[in-house]
Amino acid sequence: MLLESIKRVNDIKKIRKEDWNILAQEIRDFLIRRISMTGGHLGSNLGAVELTMALHLALDLPEDKIIWDVGHQSYTHKILTGRGDRFDTLRQFHGLSGFPKRKESECDVFDTGHSSTSISAGLGLVRARDITGGKNIVVSVIGDGSLTGGMAYEALNNAAKLETNFIIVLNDNNMSISENVGGVSKYLNNIRTATSYLDLKEGIYNVLAGTKRGNSTINKIRKAKSSFKHLVIPGMLFEDMGLTYLGPVDGHDIPGLITVINEARRVKGPVLIHALTQKGKGYLPAERHPARFHGAEPFEISTGIPSNPRMEANYTDIFSTVMCKLGQRDQRIVAITAAMPDGTGLKRFHNMYPDRFFDVGIAEEHAVTFAAGLAAGGLKPIVAIYSSFLQRAYDQILHDVCLQNLPVVFAIDRAGLVGSDGETHQGIFDFTYLSGIPNMHICAPKNKWELSDMMKFAVALEAPVAVRYPRGTAYTGLKEYRAPVELGRAEWIYREWEIALFAVGSMVKTAEAVRTALKARGYGVSLINARFVKPIDEDAVQEACGGHALIVTMEENVACGGYGEKVLDYMNRTGLRNRCLNIALPDAYVEHGNVELLKKEIGLDADSIVKRICGCLGTDCSVR
Question: Which backbone phi and psi does 500 adopt, to 5 degrees?
């Protein structure tokens, strides 16, 4: 097999041109086989095989630099840089990351995971290259979906000032910008980037610039040229911004891609290559259902069906059902998502109430301010965004929603540890970044019924409120405990003595296991479902301190700025001298891996918590 000869970076250049398509098929087969076992981002990678190969063939890595926007499509890049033998560990603890990671390879020049960042990062690398006297090529690869993010246009606007080479590759798998107009476009692209044309154009402009009316003449030539290009060349949006546009080109034609990349290298300024690709190419289930294979679980290759189909409802499913019921009861309720209608569970709401559903694309900042406008207009907007993506809209939450105290509901999915996607996707900072904002209210449900109750509460509250829930199967325990949700009120589940466990959201389930283990050791243990992180239930803390020697807070958020700090602050301010143990995530980024394994590794599992509590009490963990 040709793929077996790829052991290190640039080994692809030893492959004969007539064998490139064979290698591309081998890479596709490899990706399908490996991802069927580990899970991962299959569709985007199958669509970028030839594009990645062309970049590696045309460039000289690691001297030349490639920045992958988001990084979903970087698997072929990892294979071609000698990491194919590690794909059995893809997205597993201490294994190969599903995203570019500088610590993995010198060919990964920028860690990515969130969208619309590659052009900004690439521009920074270009400026650094020019200042330090480098000669390397810098390429930013961005998808048409990521191009909906405003940050990408901020970077394009800034890049237009460049007078040195910078290549941007638009990987368009939906033909969302323009269609190929055929031979005229290809002909003009070849002429405009030919050395003779570039030299002639520069020479004419230099001569005219030295004449009395030179600048006026140059401007007239440019206007005439632009008017003609508007008629025959797609992509004039980029041309008008100051970029040279090349394309559209076939993103699966390796020789053609290499040719246009080499043409782009000769442009003294920013140049955008528009490559048309097919998401999921080469695997029929992924071609037919690209959304399903965006982030796939392990699956059967013959059918594409998950190997271990989910039997129980997850929190996203519960949210989806609640949203449809809320929409039926109140015509003012509208739903907003940032390119994640399936992932956030809003697809059913969209089908039922299309006029009240808004997918704004990968534009979290816009989503939040748009929601603020909807609220100011008398509607009840619910913004469903993953925890790690909502942090991109922090200023809009603070300035446009909370400053005006507008009733926007933030449905924060994938909160806490999410596992295989790693550092860029762990939702472990939302308590911290939201709780410092005036007028914001934050709650987290202990089980699936409480999620339903909290959503109803949130919609009725005439103020900003965040409902935070985790990824995975919805907890069905403690069904009998369903006290009405009241602002800032905790729920006492068990009342005993000695130790009081205050658990937030997903940690209530863990707290149950901790309580069982401590009671087996002879301790009396109260369990309180905190419910609210802002405002905390100060009365419940006061009451607990009156009858318990040790207060324990448990949350799936970093300790800094989290629930535990708020409880400890209240105790310090009011002179409560009980011992207080805060169980939270460390002040660190948590790598990828199975969630239960990660919890054990960082001490957030029941056994580790029991040991910490016993240590705090000065006892061993044996039964008393």
Answer: -115, 120
Give the CA radius of gyration of the chain: 28
- DSSP-derived letter for residue 204 is H
Measured distance between the N- and C-terminal CA atoms of the chain, rounded to whole angstroms? 63
Do 43 and 290 touch, CB atoms closer than 8 A?
yes
Strands 441-443 and 532-534: antiparallel
User: Could you give the CA distance from residue 480 to residue 489 in angstroms, rounded to a whole number?
Assistant: 18
Helix (H) or strand (E) holding 499: strand 498-503
**Measured between alpha carbons, how far is 296 from 303 in angstroms, rounded to an integer?**
13
Report residue 539: phi and psi, to 5°: -65, -40
> pTM of the entire structure?
0.88
Q: Determine the Cα–Cα distance for residues 237 and 257; give it in Å rounded to an integer.
A: 22
Q: What's the pLDDT tens digit per position in 314-344?
A: 999 999 999 999 999 999 999 999 999 999 9
Instruction: Report residue 456 as tokens.
Output: 């109803």
| 1-52 confidence digits (pLDDT tens) | 899 999 999 999 999 999 999 999 999 999 999 999 999 999 999 999 999 9
Residue 209 CA: distances (Å) to CA of 269, 439, 559:
19, 59, 62
Number of residues that make up the chain: 624
As a whole number of angstroms, the distance between CA 439 and CA 416 comes to 23
Residues annotated catalytic, as ranges: 279, 364, 392
**Structure token pair of residue 308:** 């271990």
Class of residue 617 by CB neighbours under 10 A (exposed 0-12, middle 13-18, buried 19+): middle
Mean pLDDT, range 491-510, rounded to an integer: 97
